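Researcher: Let's try something more involved. This one mixes different molecule types, so please make sure each is placed in the same coordinate frame as the others.
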Amino acid sequence: MESKRNTEQKKTILNALMCADHPTASELFEVIRRENPRLSRATVFRVLGQFADDGVVRRLHFLGSDTRFDARTVPHAHCHCIKCGRVTDVFDGDFTPLLALNEVGDFTVLSTEIEFNGICADCSRATGDN
Ligand SMILES: [Zn+2]
Ligand SMILES: [Zn+2]
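Model: All components are placed in one shared frame. Result:
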């Protein structure tokens, strides 16, 4: 009985995540709440966790930031600005072979994240002196 409602909720949350840019669960909840005020914070957090556990979305753990979520499952790396927190996708041929590795020696790789922490162009312009 609750399954149809669950399916609708999951669709709403996944669609919102696809339109958002690596949001935290709280940020995504704020976006969803504007159009779906009846969807609770607990539901958004729970469904996001399920998606991540099932491999539908990726969990990202950036330096000094809450867990972020990414609906883009195509292999890509991330640049994370430590000043403004902006996360940008990097699709670069140099990294793709690394991201596609299934094993390293006798170690089986289940997931790989490539994360560059630094200062984005806007922030380095804003400070002016570096
Ligand atoms: Zn920045
Ligand atoms: Zn991404």
